[in-house]
Design a protein that fits this description.
Length: 537
């Protein structure tokens, strides 16, 4: 009996020793050693079977889209899960690890963001991560990251474009045969529903796989090539047109409409129409420079470039229309001025009747010797002009050239009379040149005054006095009719050019708005309906 109690006591001491031994803190360094050894390679029991890693992400915020740099900023949570049998424990629930020193002792998947230009790990106020270890060694790890992600934008339909931006995640060192990273089965990519972007709307997000074929282990003479796990989180974005509609489309459209005001301005008001046309052209050019600000210099035409080019075309056509109108009006004013000046000459030429009557009366009294009358008429420079419909005679100084006016024609006829009424019957009186200026001058021809005085012969050789009178009457009447016809023709040409200009103005008042309306219908239908491809969710 005594021996029995001795054996029982020895067994109790042994149990106490084993309990103290197993619960002693001296065993803690062995755990650290185990962790340090476990992070050298993936926790796989069989090297031929890759370690499976599940991945998911949650987009907390998006912003700072820079079209010129083709990048945006994103704040996201990354979730990963894998099984590490070396971390198995006998607790009934997950073990939380939020100590950064312990986290560094645990093996973690070496994932990185392939298209991130900058990436940072959030550490305010403490490192933002958590790590849960299940009893069977399954690890659930999450962390918070801030990325500047590159996104290749297709701006052909800007600002009515849809963009696909991806966040690519790859394993850096382990090929897919060693560490195989895949998405979670349910909702691997999610985003915060309260995200509000000023320029874009998030249509939806999706998960996909990308090509992870790369060359690695590069040396001077050799390299290896294999597939790495490559995952892509896709963001489908649709640009909001509100900003560009207010800042670009409406102002440029109004500038085009303002250019149409010149069609209602009097076609003779050249300064007003020139100012309006060039002001709209300069304003549109300045606004166009602002449209391209902040956009990359791509090699293709964007939708807003086509709109701006069309607006510039309409304004330029309005300027060309003004140039056409101005050309017609200049011709109209030219012929109108010529008609008025010739009309003045014709009105001045009515004095010929009085002159001829005086010549006839002198010839009747003096028997044809009317030289004194002619000398009295041509004694000095005299100017005949019309002022308020009345004839006005003015003295002019000597020294001017001999005018080719109606009075010159009459003077020429007097020379014929002076040569014994020897008229050339082939002379075309209706086609003689006439001045279009307002004032008509005549003077005495003094070149041959010493040798040949202007005299009428008392003995006509051919037709006599009666023939001369009839010839002068006929010539004067025919010349007056031709002058009136030319004046009327010039007035008609001037009116025709003015009517052509007015007709063009009236046509453009309706043609330009109709063409601009058709352009708008086609433009918005093409970019909002025809090229708008629905996004498959």
């Amino acid at each position: 009996m005594k021996k029995y109690w001795s054996t029982l006591h020895l067994f109790q001491v042994l149990c106490i020793f084993i309990f103290i031994r197993t619960s002693s803190p001296l065993t803690q360094p062995n755990i650290y050693n185990l962790l340090q050894q476990s992070n050298t390679r993936p926790p796989t029991a069989n090297a031929s079977v890759p370690l499976g890693v599940k991945l998911g992400m949650y987009l907390e915020s998006l912003g700072n889209f820079r079209s010129s740099e083709m990048s945006f900023d994103v704040d996201l949570y990354v979730y990963m899960s894998w099984q590490d049998p070396r971390l198995a424990h006998n607790f009934s629930d997950y073990v939380l690890i939020n100590n950064d020193e312990i986290r560094k002792q645990i093996w973690l998947p070496d994932l990185y963001f392939a298209n991130a230009r900058q990436a940072s790990f959030q550490e305010v106020t403490v490192p933002n991560f958590n790590l849960f270890v299940a009893p069977d060694g399954t690890v659930a790890y999450s962390c918070r990251c801030t990325l500047t992600v590159a996104c290749s934008l297709n701006l052909r339909y800007y600002p009515m474009d849809q963009q696909l931006c991806s966040i690519r995640v790859l394993s850096y060192a382990y090929i897919a045969k060693q560490v195989n990273v895949t998405w979670f089965d349910k909702n691997p990519v999610r985003f915060n529903e309260e995200i509000g972007l000023p320029e874009f709307q998030i249509e939806h997000v999706s998960n996909a796989y990308c090509n992870g074929s790369y060359q690695y282990a590069l040396t001077e003479n050799s390299y290896k090539s294999d597939d790495f796990s490559c995952l892509s989180g896709n963001l489908f974005l649709s640009r909001s047109i509100g900003y560009n509609l207010v800042q670009s489309y409406i102002p440029t459209g109004l500038i085009v409409m303002i250019s149409w005001v010149s069609f209602w301005i009097d076609r003779r008001a050249v300064p007003a129409r020139v100012t309006l046309s060039f002001t709209t052209l300069v304003s549109l050019t300045t606004l166009g420079n602002g449209l391209r600000f902040g956009l990359p210099q791509v090699s293709y035409a964007k939708a807003i470039d086509l709109w701006y080019g069309a607006c510039m075309f309409f304004v330029f056509c309005a300027l060309l229309e003004f140039a056409t109108i101005n050309s017609y009006m200049r011709k109209s004013e030219k012929f109108d001025s010529m008609a008025k000046k010739m009309q003045s000459v014709v009105l001045t030429g009515r004095t010929r009747d009085y002159l001829v009557r005086g010549i006839k009366e002198s010839m009747r009294i003096a028997g044809g010797a009317a030289g004194n009358v002619v000398d009295a008429l041509n004694d000095d420079w005299c100017t005949y002009s019309t002022e308020n419909g009345r004839l006005k005679t003015e003295k002019s100084p000597r020294g001017y050239g001999k005018p080719d006016t109606v009075q010159d024609i009459l003077s020429e006829r007097i020379k014929f009379i002076d040569n014994e009424f020897d008229f050339d019957t082939k002379e075309d009186d209706g086609n003689m040149a006439m001045s279009i200026y307002d004032n008509v001058s005549c003077r005495k021809d003094e070149a041959d005054s010493s040798s040949e005085e202007t005299k009428f012969s008392t003995k006509p050789k051919r037709n006599g006095t009666n023939g001369t009178r009839k010839y002068i009457d006929k010539s004067l009447n025919q010349s007056g009719q031709n002058d009136s016809l030319i004046v009327a023709t010039y007035f008609q040409i001037s009116a025709n050019h003015s009517r052509h200009a007015l007709k063009i103005d009236k046509s453009c008042r309706y043609l330009f708005p109709a063409a601009f309306l058709l352009w708008n219908v086609f433009y918005w239908w093409y970019y909002l309906v025809y090229t708008k491809t629905p996004i498959d969710k």
